[in-house]
Amino acid sequence: MATIYDVSVLAGVSLATVSRVMNNNTKVSDKTKQKVLDAMASLGYKPNTIAQSLASNCSNSVGVLVSQLDGPFYGPMMTQIETSLRVENKHVIIAAGHSDEVQEKEGVDFLISRGCDALILDVEAVSDEYLITLSNGDTPIVLINRYIEAIKERCVYLENEQGGYMATDYMLSLGHKNIAYISGPMYKLDARDRLRGHQRALAEHNVLFDPELWFEGNFREFGGIDAMQHLLTLNKPISAVVCASDQMASGAISVCLEHGIRVPEDISFIGYDNIPFPTYISPKLNTISNPIHEMGKMAALWVLKEVYKDKKVSVESCFSPQLFIRGSACPPK
Amino acid sequence: MATIYDVSVLAGVSLATVSRVMNNNTKVSDKTKQKVLDAMASLGYKPNTIAQSLASNCSNSVGVLVSQLDGPFYGPMMTQIETSLRVENKHVIIAAGHSDEVQEKEGVDFLISRGCDALILDVEAVSDEYLITLSNGDTPIVLINRYIEAIKERCVYLENEQGGYMATDYMLSLGHKNIAYISGPMYKLDARDRLRGHQRALAEHNVLFDPELWFEGNFREFGGIDAMQHLLTLNKPISAVVCASDQMASGAISVCLEHGIRVPEDISFIGYDNIPFPTYISPKLNTISNPIHEMGKMAALWVLKEVYKDKKVSVESCFSPQLFIRGSACPPK
DNA sequence: CTGTTAGCGCGTTCAT
DNA sequence: ATGAACGCGCTAACAG
């Protein structure tokens, strides 16, 4: 591999001059610049990014820690992050936290030790205090999907309570009264927020929240399956089910169909997240959008602006959910 | 940040000794080692990986280029790669190729310029020749999902032809004769291989391949939707549909259900890939497994063995598909 | 077993 | 505008 030294010899200039044309932050006369450029081209010179990092104390890498790399969310998010960052020649290093406090912290340490210039975190097991302390460290962080008052300028999040409200409000406006709710696990903030929204909608319509009609799921398909099986054993009238995730809604619907219960004729459904898959199956799932890809992009822009001092980007941190009406709900009989 | 120098001073030894205990490849007396360890601990010393990389000419990073970061495949694959590599303290840098030749090449260049020690590639737009040439370069590469004879020891792949055969053979064994086939795009090798397997199965059962019953899809849900809508306009008897991907199968099934066609009673279906989602909906999709996560893991192990000279791993490069029977097929009426 | 010394490839003062 | 020299933090001979 050709180095800056080879280029300097061929161009008949000093090392420093070559470095200058590379970073073109200092004035270099046009003709020496051209000589250097020619030399670089004829040698097929590529800068050694490792050496650049060491000398400049900037690795041009940003670490991304998500709870899981698979599933319907993180893919789109990673896509946006990678795309937004690569155009600025930054690279992304990934790590998975697996929703486990120890692993999430290990992931953070790992990424920091890797010399990342910034961290984009989608974590759920670590405490607010940990994150606040972390944000005072040397490596800047942005949080996706989490709102912490003390460091709100580093948070990119969705108004989950509002989304939960919208889902249930929609069912109520259709005329439903007997509404079951399948929530996410209560240790997750977004699950709690969505549930709160659900309860607020019920209250506003003077419908009592029946704890028996609430099942704590896990956001995954089989959580929805378990939930629906349980709800069916209750022998209570249920005309609509609001699910805190599309995955749970899909699982729950499959249980109904297998029991000969028609959707939406017998029971209406609405999910949350607006993941792609359920829009292609039958019935097409109504849902509340969770613009996870937008949030990924925004987090990347935050890094570009705050860490790499890119002037032209502007960031927006709070996202509003949106209702998508398709074919999985109708008025009660 | 404390450096190796600070540690050496505090421990009263030389720089080299500190370096030795870090890499513990040379013998160091137990008590000096302990002194160094204590000094490191009390300083909270963390090695600077950038400097290590520069000095050792090894970045401990491996680049992963996939066509897309989202969708049901690459998530599980990335998970395995990340997990396998992280335990060995290697980090993964990601890039997306978007199934486009230019972008795939740019991605490769990007990762190489980032000093990756090795590349794991899941590419489909670049030519075999390009990859063969690339494999002769300085950065070792492994290919996932692609078989190239000249560099087969660098390929981790699935026997797609066999899988295609199995899917159709299964339908034939159920008694189906009027079998439609929804393929992937013909410019992709795996799509062609799966189709070949389909044709071989038909031939073995003396069933003629009817080109009219073959629709070239795109592996995605809407490809299956388009395909099924087209097949239905044919007014030909069709009792079974073999799809080259679960996503297309799901799209196709949704079209049937909307037309009041029952699955599997009226038309049987089988997909390919064994992605999670369709196992949670109704009807549960029969399919051929595509162990993409296993392949990801194997690629990571290949890198560990061939690049980082890890002795204990053994790699296997050829994967066999497997038939999964669930609820989307039955004998014809 | 341990210390000395030279790089790794590049950025960045200082001079000039 | 350009060059010389030093330093980033660490590894790897080479001595001893």
TrEMBL record, chains A, B:
Keywords from the named record: DNA-binding, Transcription, Transcription regulation
PROSITE patterns per record: HTH_LACI_2
UniProt entry tagged with the keyword Transcription: yes
Residues of the HTH lacI-type domain: 2-56
Pfam families, per database record: LacI, Peripla_BP_3
Domain of life, per lineage: Bacteria
GO molecular function annotation: DNA binding
SUPFAM superfamilies: lambda repressor-like DNA-binding domains (SSF47413), Periplasmic binding protein-like I (SSF53822)
PANTHER family associated with the record: HTH-TYPE TRANSCRIPTIONAL REGULATOR GALS, LACI-RELATED TRANSCRIPTIONAL REPRESSOR
Name under which the protein is recorded: LacI family DNA-binding transcriptional regulator
Organism in which the protein naturally occurs: Shewanella intestini
Organism lineage string: Bacteria, Pseudomonadati, Pseudomonadota, Gammaproteobacteria, Alteromonadales
